[in-house]
Design goal:
- This protein has 359 residues and is an alpha/beta fold.
- The chain contains 15 helices and ten strands.
- A seven-stranded mixed sheet has the order 5-6-7-8-1-9-10.
- Helix 11 links the parallel strand 6 (242-249) and strand 7.
- The longest helix has 18 residues, at 222-239.
- The chain is globular.
- The structure holds ligand V47 and iron/sulfur cluster.
Amino acid sequence: MITLKTISKKVNDGKRISPNEALFLFESNDLFGIGELAALVNERTNGPHVFFNVNRHINPTNICVNRCAFCAFSRTAGDDGAYTLALDEICRMAREAEGEGATEVHIVGGLHPDLAFEFYEETLRAIRHTAPKLHIKAFTAVEIEYFSRISGLTIEQVFERLISAGLGSMPGGGAEILVEEVRQKICPEKISGARWLEIIRLAHLAGLKTNATMLYGHVETVADRVAHMEILRNLQDQTGGFQAFIPLAFQTENSDLKLDIKGTSGLDDLKTLAIARIFLDNFHHIKAYWIMLGEKIAQVSLAFGVNDLDGTVIEEKIGHGAGAKSPQTLTKEGIIRLIRKAGKTPVERDTLYNPICSF
Ligand code: V47
Ligand code: SF4
């Protein structure tokens, strides 16, 4: 019989827990028991250190042919609020970020019906030229697949071209829930879960590190969340290319997904992060994205297995378009204070988790 005690024994012995055991944890209300276990795993992996990085998000366009039901960020061309940034503007934002001490730009956007693949290559080249110290973390697997479709290049060729233009790594977006029945309900136009995974596998083979996200708190069941994490754990066993796992709490406003709920509960947020820490034993980092969680839950999560707090961000559009109540940016000092007050040691990192400075 599965109990918290049997799971605890496994974790203490350094053994991997099964999907059924993860499900048991999701169905348990023993938040502190789960949290304690997650904190133990995190302490073993990362000690008292909590990473953060100084980055800027740039979303070149919100025009998107997919129009996922949950997404309040995207527009159809010609809609009110539809935009596409000029290359000059993107460069100005990157230069400004570099000047303010950022080490990374995080670039993701909609699937634009008219922009050519060359625009994205040119964007990377222009950023590399104008802000050479910035690491460029850009494009989800969904965008990579789209680039392949619009250019006629293979996925491998797309990676080759983007890496040579300056791509340094990839964010973890577009994963949502990697279970087909759920994708059919929340993002039927988006590439399948299997295709997302294949593109990430090819990214890892091409030498790119990526993250993996999980959009939770909508129509999925806890069994879907476990299935999602199991798929990621299996790929990580093969490639080792994932850096961080990032659960994204669904923000409900302005989305076409009409649900009875008004967002996730703090309890669910903490449980999800903690179970991820316990289950994903081959992921080094569990990241709390405070934009979706709010600063307070993000801070408390540091006692529930989280070792990475993202980030200083500057001007966030995806979560705020959907009603996120968190501020648009946190200063570096603000993040350091938040981590310190949780009794942890803040460490500024670069995109590839090399420590830059601890505070
Ligand atoms: O894939 C869209 C999510 C993702 C909503 O890799 C929403 O370091 C909540 O992937 N409520 C894009 N989430 C953001 C992303 C990300 C963010 C921070 C760090 C990293 C990283 C990656 O945002 C999308 C989708 O899953 N999203 N709409 C919403 N209403
Ligand atoms: Fe487009 Fe991404 Fe929004 Fe889906 S989540 S509509 S692919 S921008």
